[in-house]
């Protein structure tokens, strides 16, 4: 085997190993930083549905707590003209989200920071797809920091002590290819 092929295989192995280590360490760090809450994307079928349920208007400031790959924020920025701010503490989704924002040229800023320690007082709308334990931690933060009239739009999970002003029920959708049901969840809208 020619020496150049050996070098190419070696370089490929080193680069692949580095990327695998980066992804694995990012996932591990994210689980540690969030106390075991994994990164789970909102289903693509519901991105636009969430934006419509929030009744977004051009120029609004929209926060996404645990924004992941910034799917929801880039969709909202491109289709509704909002200014987005996303918080994602896991490195790999954060990098992916920043790349998506750059590629789509969306008016969105992604921050590598714990949203529990962030100032959310500028938000007109806050999106979240977070486990019940985290929603319980956020409830007092929403009450104390959000301005009057601000909305919280929660996918799947509710705030424990506040009744939603509106619930948009999920509709059963089916995959075009597999004909299996897609998992969508209710959208809970809170008015502060």
Distance between the termini: 69 Å
Largest sheet: 7 strands, mixed
- Count the beta strands: 9
Helix and strand pattern: HHEHEHEEHEEEEE
User: Which whole number gives the mean pLDDT?
Assistant: 88
What is the count of helical runs?
5
Quick overview of this protein structure:
By secondary structure, the chain is an alpha/beta fold. 40% of the residues lie in helices and 18% in strands. The strands form two sheets. A seven-stranded mixed β-sheet has the order 3-2-1-4-5-9-6. A two-stranded antiparallel ribbon has the order 7-8.
Q: How would you describe what is shown here?
A:
The protein is of the alpha/beta class and 192 residues long. The protein has 2 domains: 1-33; 44-191, Vaccinia Virus protein VP39 (Rossmann fold). Helices cover 40% and strands 18% of the residues. The protein contains 5 helices and 9 strands, in the order H-H-E-H-E-H-E-E-H-E-E-E-E-E. It has helices spanning 3-33, 47-53, 71-80, 91-104, 132-145, and strands spanning 61-65, 83-87, 108-111, 125-128, 151-155, 166-168, 173-174, 181-182, 187-191. A 7-stranded mixed beta sheet has the order 3-2-1-4-5-9-6. A two-stranded antiparallel ribbon has the order 7-8. Strand 1 (61-65), helix 3 and strand 2 (83-87) form a beta-alpha-beta unit. The radius of gyration is 19 Å and the shape is globular. The mean pLDDT is 88.
